[in-house]
Amino acid sequence: MADLVHVPIASDVDVVAARQSGRDVARAAGFSSGDQTVIAAAISEIARNILMYAKRGEISLSVVANGERQGVVVVARDQGPGIRDVERALEDGYSTSGGLGLGLPGARRLMDDFEVASAVGQGTTVTMKKWRRLHS
Amino acid sequence: MEVPILKQGQNLIASIQSALTDADLSQLREALVERVGKFRARGVIVDVTALDVMDSFAVRTLRDIAHMARLRGAETVIVGIQPEVAFAMVQLGLTLKGVATALDLEEGLAFLHRPGQKGIERPGGRIERG
Q1: Mean pLDDT, rounded, of chain B
Q2: Where are the beta strands (DSSP E) in chain A?
Q3: Fewer CB near the last or first residue (10 Å), C or N of chain B?
Q4: Which pLDDT score is estimated for A96?
């Protein structure tokens, strides 16, 4: 497990910082530039969700190895209002903020693994991973 | 970071130099819509070559720029979307429907200057509607 990178999210500048960190971590782990972009775009959506719904939170980035695969793990945590209906929040076009409703479902499409844990009144944690095969 | 906006003939060219925050993007939108009137521009080019990510906010803002400029009488072309960025946009479900795009600045200018464009005087030229 590589070093964890923590990016606090409290303003739109942090959204840019988070996606750039994501790109850096992915590049260092040997991901293609296409995958770096995909990871950065997913982080951007998730970080913006934190700003929009919870006002503040944090994104943690790490690299894991799992047999023949290596993965970038992105964990987005907030202590915001939580998501009442996670399944609906993962549907395209569903938004309670007046946004496009593409954030969660879009990020899910970009990444390989995607989990949302949320409790109303306590906050939301999104864990997403992108994998690449290691050369053997 | 403010995006420089150049005036070239009847066109405005906004050349994005680095990653933009949401506030920067909104500021670009206001500046372009205002300058279409100030410079009586007929065309707007937004060069996004330097953007290494376009998320839903960026795409929505570009679409808004194009629609607002059209309401002010100018046509917008987005140029320079990088291949990886295009891939991620499609995966995210983001489209620029109804907005003209071109490969690069040169193609964007050629699009705005295509025959039959309003405001472009081409005596003796063939009139086409694009």
Answers
A1: 89
A2: 5-9, 57-66, 69-78, 113-119, 123-133
A3: C
A4: 66
The pTM of the full predicted model, rounded to 2 decimals, is 0.88
Q: What is residue B115's three-state secondary structure?
A: coil
Amino acid B2 reads E
Q: In which domain, by residue range, is A65 found?
A: 5-133
Q: Mind telling me how many Å the CA of A99 is from chain B's nearest CA?
A: 9
Domain segments of chain B: what residues?
A: 5-109
B102-129 pLDDT per residue, tens: 999 999 999 999 887 754 443 443 444 4
Alpha-carbon distance A119 to nearest alpha carbon in chain B (angstroms): 26
Q: What is B5-109's CATH topology?
A: Transcription Regulator spoIIAA (3.30.750)
At residue B70, what is the residue type? R
Kindly list the residues from chain B whose CB atom is less than 8 angstroms away from the CB atom of residue A106. Answer: 56, 91-94
Q: Which residues of B touch A12 (CB under 8 A)?
A: 21-23
| pLDDT for the residue B40 | 95
What's the mean pLDDT in A24-34? 95
